[in-house]
């Protein structure tokens, strides 16, 4: 299975990264719809698309308005956007408000259920995360592999959602801050590097990819990967276009 990182920035895009959007092309599954959502059109391999929103802060959802170009590029016969019911209502009422966008959404909106069977028989579950306004993380389990996506939350080696990501083959986790602003991370509901790698080690995952990188960082040097890899060796900083096999 291949995961394509289409957007790996948080808050706003910069010259190196667009905001949150990840895709499993073989499965027709997308996580979040940030500014990188337009890139989905280049990776469609199925005739259906399921978009799973972690939450609806603008850097994670405004790419839904790009769907008018994505659907015919497929061509896609069905597009469904999944999320918590109140978040979907906010998208419907506000993002697609006639004063902000001239036409209604060209897709179905479906509230999350406890467990979902995906097209290939795999199982998707979700779990709550601590973040202003609320957020959810996702896990997909196949018979021979697993993936978890966790963004916009405060990591810790004993955090409540640890049990939901335990033992996954690939953990994609936000890392908005280096390690010099722990108070700001806590205040804004985001994570620092060492918090994330300590969590990955505690959860005994196999591979960690960091996303939702702070766009004000011109480079990634402030992330001390040498120190991080002493705690969790299989740590990678995600960049737009990276393809991860798992």
The count of helical stretches stands at 7
Radius of gyration: 17 Å
Helix content: 10-25%
Order of helices and strands: EEEEHHEHEEEEEHEHHEHEE
| Largest sheet descriptor | 7 strands, mixed
- CATH names the topology as Metallo-beta-lactamase, Chain A
The CATH architecture comes to 4-Layer Sandwich
- Low-confidence runs of at least 5 consecutive residues: none
Mean pLDDT across the residues is: 97
Structural class: alpha/beta
Strand order, main sheet: write it out.
Answer: 6-5-4-3-2-1-14
N-to-C terminal Cα separation, in Å? 6 Å
Query: How many E-type strands?
Result: 14
CATH superfamily: Ribonuclease Z/Hydroxyacylglutathione hydrolase-like
**CATH class value:** Alpha Beta
The number of distinct structural domains comes to: 1
Plain-language structure description:
With 246 residues, the chain is α/β, with parallel strands linked by helices. It has a single domain, classed as Metallo-beta-lactamase, Chain A (4-Layer Sandwich), CATH 3.60.15.10. Helices cover 21% and strands 26% of the residues. The protein contains seven helices and 14 strands. The chain has a seven-stranded mixed beta sheet. Helix 3 links the parallel strand 5 and strand 6. It starts with a strand and ends with a strand.
């Amino acid at each position: 299975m291949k995961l394509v990182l289409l957007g790996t920035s948080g808050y706003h895009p910069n010259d190196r990264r667009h905001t949150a959007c990840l895709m499993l092309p073989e499965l027709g599954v997308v996580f979040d719809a940030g500014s990188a959502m337009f890139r989905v059109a280049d990776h469609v391999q199925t005739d259906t698309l399921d978009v799973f929103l972690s939450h609806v802060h603008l850097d994670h959802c405004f790419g839904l308005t790009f769907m008018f170009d994505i659907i015919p590029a497929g061509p896609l016969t069905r597009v469904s956007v999944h999320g918590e019911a109140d978040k979907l209502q906010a998208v419907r009422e506000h993002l697609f408000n006639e004063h902000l966008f001239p036409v209604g959404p060209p897709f179905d909106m479906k509230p999350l259920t406890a467990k979902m069977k995906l097209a290939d028989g795999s199982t998707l579950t979700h779990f709550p995360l601590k973040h202003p306004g609320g957020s959810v993380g996702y896990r997909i389990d196949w018979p021979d592999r697993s993936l978890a996506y966790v963004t916009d939350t405060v990591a810790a080696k004993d955090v409540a959602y640890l049990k939901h990501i335990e033992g996954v083959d690939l953990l994609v986790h936000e890392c908005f801050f280096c390690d010099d602003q722990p108070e700001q991370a806590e205040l804004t509901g985001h994570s620092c590097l060492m918090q994330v790698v300590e969590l990955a080690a505690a959860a005994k995952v196999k591979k960690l990819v960091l996303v939702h990188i702070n766009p004000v960082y011109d480079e990634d040097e402030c992330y001390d990967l040498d120190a991080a890899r002493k705690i969790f060796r299989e740590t990678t900083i995600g960049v737009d276009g990276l393809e991860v096999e798992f």
